[in-house]
UniProtKB/TrEMBL annotation:
Domain of life: Bacteria
Alphabetical UniProt keywords: DNA-binding
Protein name in the entry: HTH tetR-type domain-containing protein
All copies of domain HTH tetR-type, residue ranges: 2-62
PANTHER family: HTH-TYPE TRANSCRIPTIONAL REGULATOR RUTR, TRANSCRIPTIONAL REGULATORY PROTEIN
Keyword field contains DNA-binding: yes
SUPFAM superfamilies on file: Homeodomain-like (SSF46689)
DNA-binding residue intervals: 25-44
Classification of source organism: Bacteria, Bacillati, Actinomycetota, Actinomycetes, Streptosporangiales
C-alpha cells in the first residue's frame, strides 16, 4: 500500500510528465489526489522540500531501473547481451527505462533551475557510467568505453527532446539497428 507521501511524489511525476514544471502546484496536485494541503505540509517541508524530494525520487527510480536491468542480465554476459536485454525493456511501462515525457520536462526545467540542472547532471552521469561499465569489457580503455556508451545514450536523449518524442516502440526499433555493431562477447573489440 502506498503512503500519502508516496502518492504525492508519484502524482508529482505524473504532473511533471503531463504539464511540465509549471504544473507542479500543490493545490492542483492535492485536488488530483483528493488530499488536503495539510497532508502535503505533514509530509514535506514546503514547495522547495517537495521539489527536492520529487527530483530525488525520479533520480533514484531512474538509476535503479537501469542498474537493476543490467544486474538482471549480469555485466559479464557481454555488451551485446546486456544491450539486447535493455532494448527489450524500452517499451515496458514498469521499468522506467524510457519515460520521454518526464525526461523532456526535466531537461526543460533544468535550463532555468540550478537544482534541477544538478539532478539532471548526476542522472546523465550515472546512466553513462552504467553503460560505460557494460561496454568496458569490449573496449580498449575507459575512454573508448565511454564513447561507445554515448551512442545509445544520446539516441535516447535525442528521442526525448524531439517533438513529439519518439515512442518506445520506435526507439526500440532504432536500438535494434545498432545492436549488430555491438561486440558479441567481452573479448571482441568495439567496431571502429
Amino acid at each position: 500500500m502506498s503512503t500519502a507521501r508516496d502518492r504525492w511524489l508519484d502524482e508529482g511525476l505524473k504532473v511533471l510528465a503531463e504539464e511540465g514544471a509549471a504544473g507542479i502546484r500543490i493545490d492542483r496536485i492535492a485536488a488530483r489526489l483528493n488530499l488536503s494541503k495539510g497532508s502535503f505540509h505533514h509530509h514535506f517541508d514546503g514547495a522547495d522540500g517537495y521539489k527536492k524530494e520529487l527530483l530525488a525520487r525520479f533520480e533514484r527510480l531512474s538509476v535503479e531501473a537501469l542498474e537493476n536491468a543490467i544486474s538482471a542480465v549480469g555485466e559479464s554476459a557481454g555488451p551485446r547481451t546486456v544491450l539486447t536485454q535493455l532494448t527489450k525493456l524500452v517499451g515496458s511501462d514498469d521499468t522506467g527505462l524510457y519515460r520521454p515525457e518526464v525526461e523532456t520536462a526535466l531537461r526543460a526545467w533544468a535550463t532555468w533551475d540550478a537544482d534541477v540542472r544538478a539532478v539532471q547532471t548526476r542522472l546523465d552521469e550515472a546512466r553513462l557510467a552504467a553503460l560505460q561499465r557494460v561496454w568496458r569489457p569490449a573496449a580498449a580503455g575507459d575512454e573508448e568505453a565511454r564513447t561507445a556508451a554515448l551512442l545509445p545514450y544520446l539516441l535516447a536523449v535525442g528521442a526525448t527532446v524531439v517533438f513529439p518524442p519518439v515512442g518506445p516502440d520506435r526507439l526500440r526499433d532504432l536500438y535494434e539497428l545498432l545492436l549488430p555493431l555491438v561486440p558479441d562477447d567481452p573479448g571482441e573489440a568495439v567496431p571502429a
